[in-house]
């Protein structure tokens, strides 16, 4: 799934414009390190997001 599709789902769920959403994730493998998901065309797999990781949503 692309970052753009995730943002679209979150936009509908949270009723926030897609342009206002900022996504990042944290992995238990790298505690305290936040990785920004900045390229909307890339997939979650590109960023190595795995089960157990925490998706961070800001607006």
Automatic annotation (TrEMBL):
Which InterPro entries does UniProt cross-reference here?
Ubiquitin-like_domsf (IPR029071), Ubl_TBCE (IPR044079)
Name of the protein in question: Ubiquitin-like domain-containing protein
What SUPFAM superfamilies does UniProt report for this protein, alphabetically? Ubiquitin-like
Organism's domain of life? Answer: Eukaryota
């Amino acid at each position: 799934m692309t970052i753009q599709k995730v943002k679209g789902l979150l936009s509908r769920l949270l009723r926030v414009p897609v342009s206002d959403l900022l996504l990042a994730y944290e992995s238990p493998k790298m505690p305290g390190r936040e990785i920004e998901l900045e390229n909307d065309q890339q997939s979650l797999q590109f960023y190595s997001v795995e089960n157990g990781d925490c998706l961070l949503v800001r607006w």
